[in-house]
Specification:
Layout: H1 4-7, E1 10-15, E2 18-23, E3 45-50, H2 53-62, E4 64-71, E5 74-81, E6 84-90, H3 95-108, E7 111-122, E8 132-140, E9 144-146, E10 151-154, E11 158-161, E12 172-178, E13 196-207, H4 210-218, E14 225-227, H5 228-232, E15 240-242, E16 245-252, H6 260-269, E17 274-276, H7 279-289, E18 293-302, E19 305-309, H8 311-327, H9 332-335, H10 349-353, E20 361-362, E21 370-374, E22 380-384
Parallel strand pairs: 2-4, 3-6, 3-7, 7-18, 8-16, 16-17
Antiparallel strand pairs: 1-2, 4-5, 5-6, 7-17, 8-13, 8-18, 9-10, 10-20, 11-13, 12-13, 14-15, 18-19, 21-22
Amino acid sequence: MKSLSWMALLLVTVSFGITTIAASSPSSAATPTPQKESNFWQVPRIGIISPMAMEQAPILAAMKVQDTIRKDGYIFYVGTIAGQPVVDVRSGEKEYAAELAMTLMALTFHLKGALLAGTAGARNPSIHVGDVVVSGFVVDKSSLHYHNHGDATPYTGLEMLTTPHSLDSHAIVGGYGIVGPNPQNAANFGYGSSHLSTEYVYFEALSGSQALATLALSSQAVLGTTPVSDITGNPKQSGSQPAKVIEGVIGSANQWTEPLSWMAAQNALYPSDAGENEGMGFAYVTTQMGIPWLIVRGISDSPWYPSTYHGVLAADRAAKIVESVIAHWPKSSVLRNTATFSNLSPESNAKKWGYIVGNKAFYQVGPVTQIVYTNSHGQTVTINSPNESEYIMP
């Protein structure tokens, strides 16, 4: 809930039908908010974030847009879906964009929940193009420590300063940070003491709202069927199969991996069912701020069928689940109940393998054989065995 004192620090101007919000200077803190906005900011809303334009389009198509608000370059569309007050924004791709957009949304609007809607690649052979994967859990698959002896471990986890309101009851904790310095001991702090701070948490996986995941699972019928030709990428194949919703683990990382052998290696530490680029940034903000959340990902492609890609179909499927979840939004008393391992669908990799985050995985890392780059003159240059001499032990 926004406090009135915080709202007084907003300067609101209206130009060409778009409300622009900017943090005001102390001298302008008393600038009055337009009368039509007096109760606007206190309306409990469901926040929706879509990273890409293609992913946002079906969400906007389902909305009755009532207002458009610009905040630090982001455009927030305010309105309703199925009669529920919502606010929608296109964040842009990658974790950092989603984290910033979610932070701005949470600090600007009064959110009763948040949904990340978009597309993803399959990381599970049981999941096909046209299916939908919901969290469950989200893990940061780029958080790795590669060791000298050929193994890799999770790299300390996601560091978060939690509060009593944070939604971390079933998240996987890897450890805690130490109590930090203060002005009195900073000069002689050094590495600090070994005293741990229970508020400074290293999270290995974050857990979404189980009430929202349950709604998504019960909405499977809205997806209809998917042509087998779309699933396989083979236009000669006929027939279709029912699309399904799976509660699983979302693997979030700023990378797009296609070779199955590399995917298997990445899934060794973090067995996931869908791979995308924004989920951890979104979940970091919502978990810390205590906003019930769910990631909804339509599957657009699969490494088991490398010739198929259907981004628009996947975005539409995710939007259908989002619309259904919003239409049947649960009571606030159950929203804060987060998912547990037992809630994962039987088809999920984590459920089949018995873990969400591994302790250690062993790899064989080969040398880089070739690098191609573009120089300052726009010419393409190829180097064989690049920098090999730099990585030979003396």
